[in-house]
Amino acid sequence: MRAFAALVLALWATAASADWLADVQPAKLVGEGDFSVFGFRLYRAQMWSERIPVGYDERFALHIIYARGIRRERFVDTGMNEIKRLASAPIPADTLARWRTDLMQALVDVGPGDQLSAIYLPDKGVRFYAGNRMTGEFDDLAFAQAFFGIWLDPSTRAPTLRKQLLGVSP
């Protein structure tokens, strides 16, 4: 009986951990790379999509596996700073406040080995996962594109990682 229970639990855990990936099926791994600061690896990022090149006209996923602990507040502050930096025009204060609230809901504190995923939903917005648990879905295309722009915008602070995620360089 114990063996059966362990098998059921293992199958459930495997299925549950694939929820974010099920959101982008029949996607395949497009590219991946590490993000490091001052020689310290913070995370490994992966881009999943059905089609290459990845574009905002299709569903895709950014999946991140963390090597270090990072607090949610730090994610939100860094993300919002990058969104503002990359914007082609100033973003209204009420929009920035709403996006900050959305990120606070969607993101969680992470430790080594934890995983966060974001699914781009064309004509809709973005869905976030922490491990196998959906943490938020936001029907806001501007927010979704601004968020993914942190990695995909040509002016990203991580141009090598951008190329790796898009499958442009090894």
TrEMBL record:
Source superkingdom: Bacteria
GO MF annotation terms: isomerase activity
Species annotation: Paraburkholderia agricolaris
Residues in Chalcone isomerase domain copies: 58-167
UniProtKB keywords: Isomerase, Signal
Coiled-coil segments: none
Signal peptide: 1-18
Record carries keyword Nucleotide-binding: no
Membrane-spanning ranges: none
Protein name as annotated: Chalcone isomerase family protein
